[in-house]
Amino acid sequence: MNPQTLDSYVSGRWTRGGGVETSLVDPVSGEMIATASAKGVDLKRALAFARRQGQAALAALSYAERAKLLAAIADVLTANRARYEGIAIQNSGNTKIDAAIDIDGGIGTLKYYARLGAGLGEAKMLLDEKPVRLAKAENYQAIHLMVPRRGVAVHINAFNFPSWGLWEKAAVSLLAGMPVFAKPASSTALLAHEMVRDVVEAKALPEGTLSLLVGGANDLLDHVLSDDAIAFTGSADTAARVRGHRNVVARSVPVNIEADSINTALVAPDAAGGGAAFDAFIREVVREMTVKAGQKCTAIRRIFVPQDKAADIAEALFAKLKNTKVGDPRNEDTRMGPVVTRAQQQAAFEGIRKLAQEADFVIGDDAPPAIDGIDADKAAFVAPTLLWVKDSKDADAVHEVEVFGPAATIVPYKDEKDAAAQIARGGGSLVASVYGEDKDFLARMVAGIGASHGRLLMIDPSIAAAHTGHGIVMPQCNHGGPGRAGAGEELGGLYGLRFYHQRLAVQGSTELLASLQAQAAALH
Fold this sequence. Notes:
Layout: E1 4-6, E2 8-10, E3 13-15, E4 22-25, E5 32-36, H1 43-59, H2 63-79, H3 81-92, H4 96-118, E6 126-127, E7 132-133, E8 140-148, E9 153-156, H5 164-176, E10 180-183, H6 189-201, E11 210-212, E12 229-233, H7 236-243, H8 246-250, E13 255-258, E14 263-267, H9 276-290, E15 300-306, H10 310-321, H11 342-356, E16 360-363, E17 385-388, H12 397-400, E18 407-413, H13 416-424, E19 429-435, H14 439-449, E20 453-459, E21 478-479, E22 490-491, E23 501-509, H15 510-519, E24 521-522
Helix pairs in contact: 2-4, 2-5, 3-4, 3-6, 4-5, 9-10
């Protein structure tokens, strides 16, 4: 079978780049399934077209009308879901469960923002606060409004969620009134490419409101303007280059970053010996290590346990992980597939070796696992790998090295203060989950570790079986985190619209302000 050539959709047409910048492969067989290149694509012209055509089209619509566009996209994607699942298995090595998280997560986020946007009605701007008096004269007041930015939303996405990463950003920016210029990671771009192709063919969006760049970013950032906005998901190294790009800096282009994150799960002393909270802890750690082969920015990397229970917890996790069936995701009994490429496999092994300099293996290894019927020289498998830092006092790597694969490390703690101090050594994370029976302990941990995270999942027995999961990003909640996680914020319901709006104070008479308020939808 000849590899498919992926084109970019820019300036209102499909455009083929020159040569081959990236080969997309099946991470089980190593077979090349597609090629991608954006060489020679006129990105300055493409961005200008999106600003001119796409921005004008969205500006003419109310929030409720834009919400209908999101619903139309969701309908197109839902109709083609079965095909997308096959692509996710072939290009990303996803199991059906993995594929559902990505595909259904994207569709679900579109539907959520479609419902949210419908509630904003026919308004074209948002009211952020009630009027405030500025002087003795009661007739002189001010309000804060938010109006859509006039440029393009440039979205640079990571390889692990080619569907969700595309649509969670697009849903918010399109509702806000900014056209989308999406650049997916090349290695897994087939799914994003096919989704956009289906949306384009269905004419679900006005021309210019959705563009897709497949291949290298090349000189993309040279052509962004002050009215544009950039949302990036990926490594901290690439994030630094995006944020520090000379043109981005010179034009003060807003940049939202979601980067590396060494996320945490902690079991409280009162729950470490068993019970509903403990069972939820074990279940969630194993799930986060193995779903999508650990390739989630929210996956658990550090497992904090009371030091007197570390051996028992290591044994309990070992018992679960040893039964995880690793193999071809096309097989019904497979519970974990490969990482997406051989390069990612080698990066995971390098990280595991760094961790192993300070930790012992409980299960797993720093070499490809032997799997029946799989050629280890072509495939990209990493076995579930659990390590144990037995003396955490002098351990550094566990707090500094993120293995983007199915690996996590047990870290003992002495008491609450010690646990909070060690968690903070991660330098800022997207999410931590804490499991305990004592609600007072959970409340103290919110105060103790909250400043280091964008989201906390606090599990007591009452929600042990009902919560949505440590690693599942819900559109109602903030997604982002401080420090090494990028200091960004996405989603969070209507709050996510802020990034794509200009917030301004309007000072004037009460009569004028009342007129503006009548035209705006309340953000809160």
